[in-house]
């Protein structure tokens, strides 16, 4: 699995938004390096298979994507899981047991694993019922595997959902809201947003820049501003020397 490597650069001067995060404070939590996280996931996977004799599929969202899938970060703070189906009591007990033992063995926080944190974030963003089901369905169709073990597979959340969520939070931050400064939501990372756009352009778009209407037609609860779109477009172009985002009025054939 190959991924583009992002070029390091300075802060975006026009807005004062940090290259790394729009939040001034880092959200609390222990930093987990990628090799340790991979070992921990293997341990949980083995425990799940051992206890349930079944294979389980979960969706991952948030910070962990950029550690495990994009490999653009060396560490992550949390494993935000989104369940693909309701767990039985036996399955939940096995997950809880596995995560608790993993916490003891590897020193990894357990709250996000046990609280279906991906859905918790969605509900805080006023996404309910059908919205959550749409994210799950599109993520399973996208089928980008983040981790695979004998008892557990983790797939990446729909990249357009992740991008739109981050645009929504960036909009709130730029407007002086609590989009990224809150403990619940964590920081909005410009690097991560650029990474998502790069993936959508080079793989899904086959080199064509991402149209605004494509992003706007999904997950409409997550409203974002023209200002947030412009900040991301400017940062992508600064980084790669070409346009990654375009307005709906731009020519369809434009690859610049």
TrEMBL record:
It comes from the Eukaryota. Pfam families: DUF7582. Residues 1-35 are annotated as: Disordered. Residues 31-242 form the DUF7582 domain. This is DUF7582 domain-containing protein. The lineage of its organism: Eukaryota, Fungi, Dikarya, Ascomycota, Pezizomycotina.
């Amino acid at each position: 699995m190959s991924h583009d490597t992002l070029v390091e650069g300075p802060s975006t001067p026009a807005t004062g938004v940090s290259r790394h995060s729009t939040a001034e404070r880092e959200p609390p939590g222990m930093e987990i390096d990628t090799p340790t996280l991979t070992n921990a996931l293997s341990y949980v996977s083995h425990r799940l298979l051992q206890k349930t004799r079944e294979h389980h599929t979960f969706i991952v969202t948030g910070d962990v994507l950029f550690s495990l899938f994009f490999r653009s970060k060396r560490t992550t703070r949390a494993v935000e899981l989104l369940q693909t189906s309701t767990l039985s009591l036996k399955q939940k007990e096995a997950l809880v047991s596995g995560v608790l033992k993993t916490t003891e063995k590897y020193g990894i926080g357990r709250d996000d694993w046990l609280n279906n944190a991906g859905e918790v974030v969605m509900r805080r963003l006023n996404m309910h019922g059908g919205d959550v089901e749409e994210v799950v369905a599109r993520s399973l169709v996208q089928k980008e595997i983040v981790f695979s073990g004998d008892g557990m597979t983790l797939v990446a959340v729909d990249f357009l959902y992740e991008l739109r969520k981050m645009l929504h939070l960036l909009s709130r931050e730029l407007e002086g809201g609590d989009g990224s400064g809150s403990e619940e939501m964590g920081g909005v990372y410009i690097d991560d947003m650029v990474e998502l756009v790069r993936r959508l352009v080079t793989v899904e778009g086959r080199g064509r820049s991402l149209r605004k209407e494509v992003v706007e037609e999904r997950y409409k609860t997550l409203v974002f501003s023209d200002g947030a779109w412009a900040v991301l477009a400017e940062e992508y172009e600064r980084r790669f020397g070409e346009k990654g985002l375009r307005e709906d009025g731009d020519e369809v054939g434009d690859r610049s």
